[in-house]
Design brief:
- Helix content is 21%, strand content 33%.
- The protein has 156 residues and is of the alpha/beta class.
- The strands form two sheets. The protein has a seven-stranded mixed sheet with strand order 7-6-5-4-2-3-9. Strands 1-8 form a two-stranded parallel sheet.
- It is globular and about 40 Å long.
């Protein structure tokens, strides 16, 4: 998925704003024209609340996730990525992440690593069952697609 630098910066800012717990959210994307599996382009970042407020795991409340999904669908977009931070470990999917990903085939998993107080390290993965494959975080200076691109929260 291609993502504008300002959207990626927002994901990192969210992680830095909550350095003691795993932050989380979703990235809306517009599918590329053409064949199935074509590259998507990120359009907006939606912050979510980690209902566990934990440094060890994250979960988005199912009602909030449905609201976010509906808002993204109303724009004609799709969920392109789910993001979260790892505050105590490198940015690699945990077994919990891998299990959760089973419900989201084809969605990228962007993880911001904050371990050891180092500079944030951002990685993205495609997870298919037990198979984890790192994919490039392809940034661009271009603004998000559409006039409405940017950081958002779904209306309640």
């Amino acid at each position: 998925m291609k993502i504008a630098q300002d959207l990626l910066d927002e994901i990192v800012a969210h992680a830095l704003a909550q350095p003691r717990i795993e932050c989380c959210g979703v990235v809306a994307a517009e599918a590329a024209e053409g064949e199935a599996g074509a590259e998507r382009t990120a359009t907006r970042v939606y912050r979510a609340e980690n209902i566990h407020a934990s440094a060890l795991k994250f979960e988005i409340d199912p009602t909030e996730l449905l609201r976010l999904n509906n808002a993204i669908d109303d724009e004609g977009w799709e969920i392109g990525a789910i993001y979260h931070s790892h505050v105590r470990s490198p940015p690699y999917p945990s077994q919990t992440d891998i299990g959760f990903a089973a419900s989201w085939p084809g969605v990228e998993w962007i993880i911001v690593g904050l371990a050891a107080g180092e500079q944030p390290l951002v990685r993205s993965y495609l997870i298919d069952g037990p198979h984890v494959r790192e994919v490039a975080v392809e940034t661009s200076a271009e603004p998000p697609l559409g006039e409405r691109g940017g950081v958002g929260e779904a209306a309640s």
